[in-house]
Amino acid sequence: MRRVSVLLLLGILLAGPVGAVQPDEILQNPALEQRARQISGGLRCLVCQNQSIDDSDAPLARDLRVLVRERLTAGDSDQAVTDFVVARYGDFVLLRPPFNLRTLALWAAPFLILMFGLAYLGRRSRQMAAPVANAEPLSADERERIEHLLRDQRD
Prior knowledge:
Layout: H1 2-14, H2 30-41, H3 59-73, H4 78-89, H5 104-133, H6 140-154
Helix pairs in contact: 2-3, 3-4
């Protein structure tokens, strides 16, 4: 029983992602189909937003897969197909958007958030350490009061 569960788990882990491409979408030419898979693997599903159109079951993703295959069958290059889809839907449709002025905030945001977070933590740690460094020693009266409170707690 243990072997079966280990094999089942291994099978699940080693299984690649199952694409959503329907049999009626697949091109007869294996070279064109491979190009279509590469292109659609880099295009974002506008409905799901975290999947490529190759992995999405959304109707819009299906339409885009068909469009990619139609353009390839018409003789367009891979770049021409990608440019056609980007012209229609914008850079957002790319899973790896280009670095340009319009996408600068998208690329810079993680680094800015990290920098501000580290600056905040550094400032906060200095503020927390400052009172300890500038603290005056306890007076004899204060020490006696603390000892009295500790003795009362033990009893």
